[in-house]
């Protein structure tokens, strides 16, 4: 009898975490490393949010809470959805979990049976396919090529749907590409989904507030009210308020699904951290200045990185609409050899050689399901980005 679960053999550790850990190990060993793998804002959590957490501690709000969120936070989330997305939810339609990842995982575990398919546009966040596999489902990939702005077409979505399709996971702005769908582009996709009433929509809106150049963010249930009863609209405070370590994600959806997700959570982690929940109330209900300030900084960094990478021989970097990532193609570098004698056969060998020879840590494109490319998180200082891009350019110029 094998000790480890067969299910575990179907999944792999997160490549983004692996890159971050490798960069940390090299830095601790004395190497000059610039880590561009972590997907978290480098800014501090706003002061009024931290103050709310301290106040919660001093008030003794350190006990168990309701499994899927305190009433105050559910009320704040309902207000947020109404205010920012035009979506009306009751507290009974809201779930709160220990991060956005748990929200998605709870929904998949609560709904997937063997043979159920989940459509995932590629490039995708590394965790989507493995969470589907852990929940017993089958991931089905639809490619969004660079030439199409890393977005999928309505025709490609239609072709991927089968009688076994249970979910479509939708992420805009996207991790890893930063691509965001316009209202019209999103409407074309929701029109397809209206024709397939057995398919549910899982909309991961975590980067909602990080859109640039006047781009208007919209979410599927907002664009097509006809999908409201089969859409789980997911979000969290981690990216919008620099609260990655606080671990609060949330979602709104049909009560039958929300109750099922609460059942899963009740037998796994139970409630999210009580202190973090009160901090999230302050984040959603309090001043929103930080969102505007961080958006300005991230847009400046995006423009800096895109311009610098497009001067590198063999690299082509499109301009993303949002998030804090770029996803450049390295098609022009495949087959070349680095100054240290490493042949670039794919994007993983590129990323490995880049780290070992220059100290710049990026995540290779195969981890996100679309090659040859790599992902840079520009959620770090301007100075570090300028230095990193100079090293990448030098590395590319040294390839033969």
From TrEMBL:
The protein's annotated catalytic reaction(s) are: L-aspartate + 2-oxoglutarate = oxaloacetate + L-glutamate
Q: What is its EC number?
A: 2.6.1.-
Extract the PROSITE patterns matched here.
AA_TRANSFER_CLASS_1 (PS00105)
Q: Which GO terms describe its molecular function?
A: L-aspartate:2-oxoglutarate aminotransferase activity; pyridoxal phosphate binding
The similarity comment for this entry is:
Belongs to the class-I pyridoxal-phosphate-dependent aminotransferase family.
Record's subunit section: Homodimer.
Q: What is this protein called?
A: Aminotransferase
Biological source species:
Rhodobacter capsulatus (strain ATCC BAA-309 / NBRC 16581 / SB1003)
């Amino acid at each position: 009898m094998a000790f480890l679960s067969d299910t575990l053999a179907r999944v792999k550790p997160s490549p983004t975490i692996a890159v971050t850990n490798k960069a940390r190990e090299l830095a601790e060993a004395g190497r000059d490393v610039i880590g561009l793998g972590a997907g978290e804002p480098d800014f501090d959590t706003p002061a009024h949010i931290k103050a709310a957490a301290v106040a919660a501690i001093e008030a003794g709000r350190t006990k168990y809470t309701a499994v899927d969120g305190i009433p105050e936070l559910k009320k704040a989330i309902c207000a947020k959805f109404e205010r920012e997305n035009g979506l009306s939810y009751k507290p009974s339609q809201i779930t709160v979990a220990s991060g956005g990842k748990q929200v998605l995982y709870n929904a998949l575990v609560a709904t997937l049976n063997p043979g159920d398919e989940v459509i995932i546009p590629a490039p995708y966040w590394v965790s989507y396919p493995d969470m589907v596999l852990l929940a017993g489902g089958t991931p089905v990939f639809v490619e969004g090529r660079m030439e199409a702005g890393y977005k999928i077409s309505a025709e490609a979505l239609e072709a991927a749907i089968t009688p076994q399709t249970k979910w479509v996971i939708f992420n805009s702005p996207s991790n890893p590409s930063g691509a965001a769908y316009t209202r019209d582009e999103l409407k074309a996709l929701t029109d397809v989904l209206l024709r397939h009433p057995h398919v549910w929509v899982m909309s991961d809106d975590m980067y909602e507030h990080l859109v640039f150049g006047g781009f208007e963010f919209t979410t599927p249930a907002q664009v097509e009210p006809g999908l409201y009863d089969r859409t789980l609209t997911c979000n969290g405070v981690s990216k919008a308020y620099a609260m990655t370590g606080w671990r609060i994600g949330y979602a709104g959806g049909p009560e039958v699904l929300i109750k099922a997700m609460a059942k899963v959570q009740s037998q796994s982690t139970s409630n999210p951290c009580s202190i973090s929940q009160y901090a999230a109330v302050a984040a959603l209900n309090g001043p929103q200045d930080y969102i505007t300030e961080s958006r300005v900084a991230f847009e400046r960094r995006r423009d800096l990185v895109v311009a610098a990478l497009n001067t590198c021989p063999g690299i082509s970097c499109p301009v993303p609409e949002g998030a804090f990532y770029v996803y450049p193609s390295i098609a022009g570098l495949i087959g070349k050899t680095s100054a240290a004698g490493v042949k670039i056969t794919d994007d993983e060998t590129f990323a490995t050689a880049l780290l070992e020879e220059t100290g710049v840590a990026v995540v290779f494109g195969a981890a996100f399901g679309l090659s040859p490319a790599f992902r840079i998180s520009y959620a770090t200082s301007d100075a570090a980005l300028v230095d990193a891009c100079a090293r990448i350019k030098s590395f590319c110029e040294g390839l033969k």
